[in-house]
Amino acid sequence: MSHDRKFFDTMSLLLGLLVVFIFVIFFVARAIIADKQNAFLMEDPTYQEELAKRIAPVARVAIAGQSDGTVAGESKPEPAAATRSGEDIYNSSCVTCHGVGIAGAPKVGDHDAWAPRIDQGLPTLYDHAINGYQGNTGMMPPKGGAMNLSDDDVKAAVDYMARLYR
Ligand code: HEC
Question: Considering the entire predicted model, what is its pTM?
Fold first, then answer.
């Protein structure tokens, strides 16, 4: 009888410990996962975007006479270039065709291709670059297709290309 009793006590104790153990594991696991889950969520670009949208101000104000036409928090539109160098303009708008010389475009630095063109004089080159030009080798679109460029931008790019010829 006392033998059964002892067995029963030991079993109860073991069961009790097991239950406690299960709870501990359960909560530890949850703690670990919660941490990871939050970190994962915070790094998610879609979530960050959504969050930024939700906490963005409802409205923004531009005050006449005090602001330059942009709304606080928004970046100013690029100044109508002229300040950009001929090299910059060439690299953003002309290099596609003139860099490698596709579709009959005279390649920069190709002396033979440029010599007769340079001989026409810069004003003609400016005119052809700004207004477009159908020559013997292909079609130079007006401003190289970059209609946002000012005439001065195009001239600067032509100057840059003409310099590379030498
Ligand atoms: C879509 C391709 C293309 C782009 C982009 C382009 N060009 Fe051209 N360009 C040509 C072609 C083709 C010719 C040659 C036309 C011919 O002589 O038959 C040419 C010729 C020229 C000439 C020589 C004109 C002449 O009288 O011989 C100049 C100067 C010139 N381009 C400047 C520019 C400038 C500056 C840009 C950038 C703002 C530019 N091009 C962008 C295709 C392009």
Answer: 0.60
